[in-house]
């Protein structure tokens, strides 16, 4: 049988196959460019969890070292960079590995053999992985909780040495993997010598030898405080797509929404809200909640600081974990103004509970987020209305020692007291002072009897 004529010409066959492939490729490209899949069903499903992108904040923006200092031989200085800048450089520059405890028979002090270093005073850890928020890498601390960390050079190799809450020392190697300016880590403020303070429970932090002159600040709260508008925000934020939400017992300055299980409350006088009594299925978490879960929860329930306030130097940073009470544990994020922490006296809140206007608090019972309480302060302009010369660090310590209070103090910090005016002008003042954490509460060092800030658990003092 005679073969088809076109098969007798292999070059022609190859050309036809190539032409077919080219035409097919062109058709597929046109389809990809022009075709838009129908996603109405997906949209309708995700309406229940719609989140404003502007609310999103990465964990590294709210979890930063509580303090950083530079060691130079036997002297210690404040850094020129903020803790957030320090952390950014560390994350962009290093990865950590080979973390292990130093030999028990020959454990040096944290500073042994170190001439120049950057020391990070870490925020109170939720779990040992708190360090991983600041330092990427593959390592395990075996459940140990780091309190302080030194970054230094040894034998032409970058090292990190940490001291744990049980006072054990661990050390690891840092690999230079990024393009971060490592030299910027060691930029010191030569005009700000620091003094190390060691407390009775072995905690350590640094305070200025010479008390600084700090600005007294004034601002207006420009956020939306109409109850109807805030209730709409709460409905969209806490009950998106829920047809069972109803307004409950509206008062002149208080609004509340409920779906029969969860309750969202807003106090217009304080411009503060609370979302509580969350249902058991409010999160999909089945294991113990970690700090990353808390951060994600806040992202999807109001976010962190608005962009306007952030541009004025206002931020929220991870501060501490309060001990569990009646099965509940509270993660505290504290406001900071220009890098300084903000403290406030407790104010009456809905149903005779109290709210700390200087913090954002998230409660959980181990596996479920149960409530969130926050202030909605929004600032578009900070105004300096004067300056205050603060006492020297040694004077603060002497005051506490002479009054017999130092043994109950676990930290000393420079910061601002916030006062929120509730009249129609809605202004706030930030007054600088030294603050001490004494017997579990933050108070001005020179006003131990006048301040009423108290640790609050489930509305019971």
Automatic annotation (TrEMBL):
<protein>
    <recommendedName>
        <fullName>Regulatory protein YycH domain-containing protein</fullName>
    </recommendedName>
</protein>
<feature type="domain" description="Regulatory protein YycH">
    <location>
        <begin position="234"/>
        <end position="450"/>
    </location>
</feature>
<dbReference type="InterPro" id="IPR042274">
    <property type="entry name" value="YycH/YycI_2"/>
</dbReference>
<dbReference type="InterPro" id="IPR009996">
    <property type="entry name" value="YycH"/>
</dbReference>
<feature type="domain" description="Regulatory protein YycH">
    <location>
        <begin position="12"/>
        <end position="92"/>
    </location>
</feature>
<dbReference type="Pfam" id="PF07435">
    <property type="entry name" value="YycH"/>
</dbReference>
């Amino acid at each position: 049988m005679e073969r088809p004529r076109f098969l007798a010409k292999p070059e022609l066959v190859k050309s036809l196959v190539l032409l077919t492939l080219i035409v097919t490729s062109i058709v597929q490209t046109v389809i990809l460019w022009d075709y838009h899949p129908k996603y109405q069903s997906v949209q309708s499903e995700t309406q229940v969890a719609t989140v404003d992108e502007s609310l999103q904040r990465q964990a590294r923006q709210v979890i930063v070292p509580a303090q950083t200092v530079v060691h130079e031989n036997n002297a210690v200085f404040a850094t020129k960079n903020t803790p957030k800048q320090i952390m950014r450089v560390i994350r962009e520059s290093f990865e950590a590995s080979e973390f292990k405890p130093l030999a028990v028979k020959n454990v040096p002090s944290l500073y042994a053999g170190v001439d120049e270093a950057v020391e990070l005073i870490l925020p109170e850890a939720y779990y040992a992985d708190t360090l991983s928020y600041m330092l990427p890498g593959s390592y395990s601390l075996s459940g140990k909780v780091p309190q302080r960390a030194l970054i230094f050079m040894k034998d032409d190799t970058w090292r990190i040495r940490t001291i744990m809450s049980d006072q054990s020392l661990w050390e690891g190697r840092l690999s230079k993997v990024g393009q971060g300016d490592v030299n910027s880590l060691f930029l010191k403020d030569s005009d700000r010598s620091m003094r190390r303070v060691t407390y009775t429970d072995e905690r350590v932090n640094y305070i200025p030898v010479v008390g600084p002159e700090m600005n007294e600040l004034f601002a207006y709260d420009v956020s939306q405080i109409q109850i109807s508008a805030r209730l709409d925000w709460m409905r969209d934020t806490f009950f998106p797509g829920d047809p069972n939400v109803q307004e409950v017992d509206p008062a002149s300055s208080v609004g509340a929404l409920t779906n029969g299980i969860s309750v969202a409350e807003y106090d217009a006088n304080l411009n503060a809200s609370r979302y509580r009594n969350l249902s058991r299925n409010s999160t999909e978490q089945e294991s113990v909640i970690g700090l990353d879960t808390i951060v994600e929860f806040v992202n999807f329930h109001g976010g962190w600081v608005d962009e306007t306030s952030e541009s004025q130097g206002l931020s929220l940073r991870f501060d501490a974990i309060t001990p569990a009470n009646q099965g509940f544990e509270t993660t505290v994020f504290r406001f900071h103004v220009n890098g300084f922490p903000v403290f406030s006296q407790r104010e009456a809140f809905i149903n005779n509970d109290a709210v700390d206007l200087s913090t954002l608090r998230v409660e959980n019972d181990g596996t479920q987020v149960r409530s969130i309480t926050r202030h909605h302060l929004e600032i578009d302009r900070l105004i300096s209305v004067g300056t205050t010369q603060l006492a020297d660090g040694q004077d603060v310590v002497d005051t506490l020692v002479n009054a017999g209070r130092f043994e109950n103090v676990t930290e000393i910090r420079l910061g601002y007291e916030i006062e929120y005016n509730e009249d129609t002008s809605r202004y706030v003042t930030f007054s600088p002072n030294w603050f001490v954490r004494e017997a579990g509460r933050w108070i001005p060092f020179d006003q131990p009897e006048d301040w009423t800030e108290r640790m609050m658990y489930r509305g019971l003092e």
